[in-house]
Amino acid sequence: MEGQRKVLRFSLLFCIPLLQLLSLAAQTIAKVPAIIVFGDSSVDAGNNNFIPTVARSNFEPYGRDFQGGKPTGRFSNGRIPTDFISEAFGIKPYVPPYLDPKYSISDFTTGVTFASAATGYDNATSDILSVIPLWKQLEYYKGYQKKLGAYLGERRAKETIAKSLHIISLGTNDFLENYYAIPGRASQYTPSEYQNFLAGIAENFINKLYGLGARKISLGGLPPMGCLPLERTTNFAAGNDCVSSYNNIALEFNDKLNKLTTKLNHNLPRIRLVFSNPYDALFHIVNKPAQYGFQVTSMACCATGMFEMGYSCSRASLFSCMDASKYVFWDSFHPTEKTNGIIANYVLKNALFQFMH
Ligand SMILES: *[C@@H]1O[C@H](CO)[C@@H](O)[C@H](O)[C@H]1NC(C)=O
Fold first, then answer.
1. pLDDT at position 317, please?
2. Which of 11, 93, 128, 263 is deepest in the core (most CB within 10 A)?
3. Which ranges form a coiled coil (predicted)?
C-alpha cells in the first residue's frame, strides 16, 4: 500500500509538470499564435453592438444555435467561418470582437476581429449605415499592437504579429449595398472600373498591414452573391433563380484579387499571402444542396426567408424555420452556421493549410 501510494504520488508529481511543459511547448511551437480579422458581416462577431448603427444582430433569433443560445452580433444562427478557422488552428472556437468591453488584451492575444457588418472596401459603403470603415479597422489594429506590446513585451508582440494569420473578408456590400443599390458610384465608375478601384484599396490595405509587421495574410474572395436569397427574391424575371450578372461580377472581381495576390507575393519579401476563395464551395452547395443534407437554398430560415435580415428578421421571427441545419442561408443575406462550417473547411483545405505546418 505504502509503496503504491508513493509511486502514485511520484507519478502525479512527475505528470503535472510534464503536461505543463507539453502545453507550453505546443504554444511556442504553434505557427499561428492568433487569428486577426478585418472585414464585414461575414466575419464580424459583434463590433457593431458598440457603435450607433442599425446593422445589428445582437437579438433573437440570431445566435439561437450558438453556445448558450446567445445572440452575439454574428449574422448567423451560430458560428461564422473565422470561428471555425480559429478552432481548426487549435486556438479558441471563436474569435472575440475588439470593441466588446467583456474582452481584454489577454483574450485578444490569441485572436481578435475588427470587422463590422455592412462595411466595404469603399468608404462610401461604410457611410451608408455608419459602420466601421476599413481604414478605421486598421487604426484599431494599430491600437491593438500597442496594447499587445505592453502586455507581451515589444519583442514577443512583434513575433506574435509576424506569425499570426491575418484574415481579410469583405467586398459584397460594395456591390450589393452600394454600387447596385444607390446612385453615386455607378455614375462614376463602370463595374470593371469600380472593381479596379476596390482592388486598389485592397492592395493599399495589404501594403499597410505588411508595413505594420503582418506576414501571413488571407485575402478573401466574393461568394456567388447573386445566389443570396435577397437577390433571388427580387429576381422575378428569371423565376427567382440566382442573379447571374452579380455572380459574374464576383467572378471577375475574384480574378482581380487572385492576380493581386500573385503580384504582392512577388513584390513584398517574405510575405505569405493567400487568396481564400469561397465562390466554388458556396456555388456547389447552392446547386447540389442535398449532397450536404440541405433541403432549402433559395429562401432563408429567418422569418419569411425572402427579405429579412437584422431587425426585420427579429420582428418576423415567429415565421422562422425550426431546423436551420436544413437551410443553406440563415437570413436573406447570410449563411447558416452549417454552411459557414463547410465553407471554412473548404478554405482551410484549399488555401489556409499552408499556415498549419
Ligand atoms: C477613406 O477615408 C479615409 C479617412 O478619411 C482616407 O484617409 C482614405 O484615403 C479614404 N479612402 C479612399 C480610397 O478614398
1. 86
2. 128
3. none
Q: How many domains does the chain have?
A: 1
Residue 357 is predicted with a pLDDT of 76
**Dihedral class, residue 283 (left if φ above 0, else alpha if ψ from -120 to 50, else beta):** alpha
How far apart (Å, rounded) are the C-alpha atoms in residues 277 and 197?
20
Cα-Cα-Cα-Cα dihedral sign, residues 214, 174, 232, 53: positive
Question: What's this model's pTM, rounded to 2 decimal places?
Answer: 0.91
201 pocket-lining for ligand 1 (C-beta < 6 Å): yes
Give the CATH number of the domain where residue 88 resides: 3.40.50
Does 235 reside within a domain? no
Q: CA 74 to CA 57: how far, in whole Å?
A: 6
Residue 304 included in any domain: no
Residue reference for cell 470603415: 133
Q: Is the dihedral of CA 92, 98, 99, 105 positive or negative?
A: positive
Domain interval for residue 265: 19-226+248-281
DSSP, res 168: E
What pLDDT is recorded for position 12?
A: 46
Distance 60 CA to ligand 1 centre (A): 35
Q: What is the pLDDT of residue 11?
A: 47
Residues designated as active site: 41, 331, 334
What pLDDT, on a 0 to 100 scale, did the predictor assign at position 167? 98
Residue 254 domain-assigned (yes or no): yes
In the chain, which stretches have pLDDT less than 50? 1-29
Let me know if residue 142 belongs to a domain. yes
Residue nearest to atom 7 of ligand 1 (CA): 135
> How far apart are alpha carbons 27 and 24 in whole angstroms?
5
C-alpha atoms less than 13 angstroms from C-alpha of 111 in its C-beta half-sphere = 21
